[in-house]
UniProtKB/TrEMBL annotation:
Residue sites binding Mg(2+) per the record: H134, D173
Protein name: Ribose-phosphate pyrophosphokinase
Residues bound to D-ribose 5-phosphate: R198, D222
Organism: Methylacidiphilum caldifontis
Keywords per UniProt: ATP-binding, Cytoplasm, Kinase, Magnesium, Metal-binding, Nucleotide biosynthesis, Nucleotide-binding, Transferase
Quaternary organization: Homohexamer.
Primary role: Involved in the biosynthesis of the central metabolite phospho-alpha-D-ribosyl-1-pyrophosphate (PRPP) via the transfer of pyrophosphoryl group from ATP to 1-hydroxyl of ribose-5-phosphate (Rib-5-P).
Record's subcellular location: Cytoplasm
Amino acid sequence: MNEDYQLLKIFSGRANPSLATKIAQYVGIPLGQATISSFPDGETFVKFNENIRGRDVFIVQPTCPPTNHNLMELLIMIDAAKRASAARVTAVIPFYGYARQDRKDQPRVSITAKLVANLLVAAGANRVLAMDLHAQQIQGFFDIPVDHLTAVPVFYKYLETNSLLDLVVVSPDVGGIKMASTYSQLLGKGLALVVKKRIDAYHTEADFVVGDVQGKDVLIVDDLTETAGTVVSAANILKKKGARRVFAGISHAVLNQIGINRLRDSQLEALITTNSVPVPMVEGIRLTVLDVAPLLGEAIKRIHTGMSVTSLFEVDGKKINL
């Protein structure tokens, strides 16, 4: 083991152990051993099975469905690590659940993204490492350092080696225009926007397209899909406007059965996503899952050794502006 990493420990909750294993392999250390189980009434029990006193501990746990269960498990792991005298505890949250509840957009509702941030700090987290938060301002909800990565370099490398004809990058809604613009600038491709309206939590409706997609390959980019309503309605209207083929690049594919059914019946040629959360391989959907373990692993190495993570926001000499 590299001497620089003798005090480094990486542990995994039960949300995405395969990703944690790949991260540890990239760093070059064994994945830490912990016992995580549930009592008959559903309570979570956590015990670290090795000495972590004075160690730099990283706990990998996306808060994907079952969201509340995985969040509570992460909080308990952080608390157990602090009580075991870990020198520093970093919560590695590839997917940050509750991120869509980041503002008070109607009367008498919670800003739950802020509540979750408070809970993580109260549990004892000293630092957070996240990827493609739904809203940039969530970083400001924390009173501890937050390293916010993006999967853009991972998607960029894939897209550069899988050329698409006369590509146009599309944002499926106004809120995603900055991410789409980033992809457009890096790839040197055109940019378009789908204007939509949300009917309810499960349904959206695309109204019109701003930009030229006639006869072109189209890449819809977004941070998250669950019910696939936004991306599917965008794909449908893009095809109506003459797009040749429609692809989707989504950082977090937190798919439920509604989303899977919609994708099967959609105009999408393929869905490209990452392993930030477990992604089931489903018949009838052309799915490509990109590995973000090297990205997260490199960030962990640099955080542990006190190095800058700025270079992780550059690809082929081009800076990524989030």
